[in-house]
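Hi all, posting the design record for the shared folder.

TITLE: backbone redesign
STEP: 1 of 1
STRUCTURE INPUT:
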């Protein structure tokens, strides 16, 4: 499994990409998933590109952004074209977006078809650049449950369409992440890994809270300390070739948390170290 960190972790930090790359290199990460805002702004500087990052032994597996699914055809095409050009600057093979901004239960059949049509257009554009378009499993979207995600895959019906499987959000929906993953596996292109203290704390991942500099961080837990059982989920993935995942940490003390999670993932992969629970380190 190829493990990346996400630059969105450092959205409220005053750090350079070089600072992040040096730390990622020293802590056995293979990639850096670029947040769309970071990818766009960094690409304006001639120093930063895929070749520069490769000097640290790192690559960009995915650029994660927010393409419009309720805009007109021209805006959809312009947004997708621009994001694809940015992704190619970093030699990323995947771009990520969301399937709307309302719960699947609140979306009419006609609205669902319209969103799927726009995603299909984005896929056409992504394919023309040699890229994949990924939609993330996430609350308040058309990928907010196993069944709705499967339906969306059928509707988009495109060879360049994939799912960014956020295991915690699948669990949040009340689905079994292992069973959902088995059902969707052939369409999964990337994984986001994070954890939470309890179901009562899930609102801590609401976008408005995550993006707020003064937002609540209590309830965000390191990967193997939270409520979801990642030992069970990851045991089926770690030995599969070509699997790419990102540790998506939004909380405080990011270097210590990410470093520890990476060590425990490596131990799990090597079958030498059983990941430890809270208080073991």
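Okay, here is what came back for every position:
SEQUENCE:
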């Amino acid at each position: 499994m190829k493990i990346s960190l996400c630059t969105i972790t450092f959205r409220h930090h005053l750090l350079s990409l070089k600072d992040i790359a040096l730390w990622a290199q020293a802590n056995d990460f293979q990639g850096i998933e670029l947040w769309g805002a970071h990818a766009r702004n960094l690409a304006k500087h001639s120093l930063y590109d895929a070749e520069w990052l490769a000097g640290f032994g790192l690559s960009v597996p995915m650029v994660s952004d927010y393409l419009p699914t309720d805009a007109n055809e021209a805006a959809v095409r312009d947004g997708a074209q621009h994001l694809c050009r940015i992704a190619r600057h970093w030699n990323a093979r995947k771009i990520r977006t969301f399937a709307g901004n309302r719960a699947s239960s609140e979306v009419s059949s006609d609205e669902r078809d319209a969103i799927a049509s726009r995603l299909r257009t984005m896929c056409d554009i992504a394919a023309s650049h040699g890229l994949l378009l990924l939609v993330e499993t996430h609350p308040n979207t058309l990928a907010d449950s196993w069944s709705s995600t499967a339906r969306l895959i059928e509707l988009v019906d495109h060879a360049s369409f994939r799912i960014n499987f956020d295991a915690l959000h699948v669990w949040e929906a009340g689905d079994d992440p292992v069973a959902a993953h088995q059902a969707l596996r052939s369409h999964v292109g990337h994984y986001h890994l994070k954890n939470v203290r309890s179901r009562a704390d899930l609102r801590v991942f609401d976008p408005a809270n995550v993006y707020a500099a003064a937002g609540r961080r209590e309830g965000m837990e390191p990967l193997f300390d939270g409520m979801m059982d990642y030992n069970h989920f990851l045991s089926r993935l770690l030995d599969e070739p070509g699997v790419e995942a990102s540790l998506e940490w939004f909380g405080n003390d990011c270097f210590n948390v990410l470093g520890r999670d990476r060590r425990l993932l490596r131990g799990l992969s090597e079958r030498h170290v059983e990941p430890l629970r809270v208080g073991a380190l």
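COMMENT: Residues 217 and 251 are 5 Å apart (CA to CA).
Let me know if anyone wants the other runs.
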